[in-house]
Specification:
alpha+beta; three-stranded antiparallel β-sheet
Length: 191
């Protein structure tokens, strides 16, 4: 069974609650997601693939986490973020994985607190990656934090390939994209 490794986790006995795997409908999954991430809340997210260890990255952000303006905000740090198998990485939605991975979510209710919570998110991620060279998961990257975020969401060769595909299939920039607009005859941006 695909879920057997979860039962063998050395921390399984310390879990606050456990539930045996069972078939689940999509309706139940959507209901659970709706309870976990209510539509009435406001959200900002960012991610970091780092070449550094979890211990290093988490130590850097501990103080910033304690100052979150909302008690609903959180940081997820999966223990094994991705397989190191290059064959699997070749066609994944992310191609710049690292030794550690963080997903930081600012979650709050009041629109008047937008600036404070977005600022906290960016401060947290800057503390986690002071060099600014880490990678990002494009679907949850704060692309407004800096102009280089989209490019750093992909391995260098993958970024160039995406630009080539954009030029081939959308030469008139009809579709909105986080890719820098490219036109016929333009040089492709190389990292």
């Amino acid at each position: 069974m695909a879920l057997e490794p979860l039962g063998a986790c050395p921390f399984a006995e310390q879990a606050l609650s456990r539930k045996k795997p069972e078939p689940t409908s999509f309706a139940a999954l959507y209901d659970g997601a709706g309870r976990a991430w209510p539509a009435a809340h406001r959200y900002a997210a960012d991610t970091l693939w780092s070449a550094e260890s979890y211990e290093t990255v988490m130590t850097r952000i501990a103080g910033v986490l304690a100052r979150a303006p909302s008690g609903k905000s959180l940081v997820l740090a999966p223990v094994q973020p991705v397989s190191p198998d290059p064959a699997l990485l070749r066609n994944m939605a992310f191609s710049a994985p690292g030794e550690s991975y963080l997903a930081c979510y600012a979650v709050w209710d009041d629109p008047a607190a937008d600036e404070a919570n977005t600022g906290w998110l960016r401060e947290t991620m800057a503390a986690a990656d002071p060099s600014g060279r880490g990678g990002h998961y494009i679907a949850e990257a704060d692309l407004e934090a800096d102009a280089d975020r989209a490019r750093r969401s992909y391995a260098a060769a993958d970024w160039v390939r995406l630009q080539e595909l954009k030029l081939e299939w959308d030469p008139d920039d009809v579709f909105h994209s986080y890719l820098a607009p490219v036109s016929r005859g333009a040089r492709l941006e190389r990292p």
